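Please produce the structure of this protein holding manganese (II) ion.
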Amino acid sequence: MEPLRCDGRRLMGRLDQLGAVGRLEDGSCCRLALTDEDRQGRDLVVSWMRELGLEVRVDRVGNLIGLRRGSEDLPPVMTGSHIDTVATGGPFDGCLGVLAGLEVVQVLNEHGVTTRRPLAVAVFTNEEGVRFQPDMAGSLVYAGGLPVAEALALVGIDGRRFGAELERIGYAGTLEPGAIVPHAFVELHIEQGPILDQEGEALGAVANLQGISWTEVTLHGRANHAGTTPMGLRRDAGHGAARLACFVHDLAQELGGVGTVGSLRLAPNLINVIAREAVATVDLRHADEQVLAAAERRLEAFLQDLRAQGLGVETRRLARTEPVVFDPGTVRVIEQAAASLGQRIRPMTSGAGQDAQMLARICPAAMIFVPSQGGVSHNPAERTDPRHVQLGADVLLRTLLTLAEERP
Ligand code: HGY
Ligand code: MN
Ligand code: MN
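Below is the modeled complex.
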């Protein structure tokens, strides 16, 4: 029998359809977790799952699992990702992994293929962590790293409670998160960085992933007149925040890894008033846990220095995950799948946090990357060549077929 191939055109069509849900004027995909737009996206994906004959299960934190029976009642091979986006998202981040999983199911249906193991396509809640922190909250609960009650009690940046929003959009399921323990988990995702694109590579086999440290820093100063207050008498939260952003940037350059102050709010945020308060977020990442921990200590020492300058400083931990090494055996299956297509595949580290890093806590997990044009993501200009979409889905198809035939 001719080796099975995915229908890249059909997959691009679904990506376009899902990408249109929550689209803003500037072309951004904006489907923050548990918003009405996220619900619309979920409803669309669930309708596709049902059309494909999948049994759809929803767990207590809104993770969706579409199950396809195997010939034997064994732990399933799982694929999938997320469909929630940042506010300035593109159509590929997360969605490619979910919709490629559905494409694999459709190809198997069309060719009457029944795999030994069941297949599962997962949509994990709140991967982005933009509205509710931590990021990857749904898959973290699924992997047993966050109690359900704690997740449901999370309060978003808009003051809404996670559990109430889940109820409101109708995706508060009953399945215990993690009740379905996969035999293996493989996630297809765009790289979201420049490496594959710059090197002219079409595929990446992700062997490991950076650790992430997210902290909210609140600086307290004193509002005063911008014209009359001598520089030596100021307690300027705006200046402290600017120093913090420079410190984080320089620290990352010194230690390697990356450092970002991505969100910054000043109060009262007026041209002629010295800022009394600044609320900033610090995102530090590194592939080496020792270096990431050292960076956190350096940050704390810097904040001490701001205190010594007269600013009040409070911190709140928003997320912390250690670096992850994916399962070498599963990475090998991905590499063999690429080779069977006559394709090279480059070893990669994921700079982004991923649901696969959480699933790696409960089963062998690994990822397939395809290039992001210009290395752009979390931006409406996010694009992946349809030929790479097709290739990534075909490698996923062959990887899942191999894993699904593995005996207990
Ligand atoms: O922040 C991340 O790395 C992911 O996009 N949630
Ligand atoms: Mn993603
Ligand atoms: Mn993302």
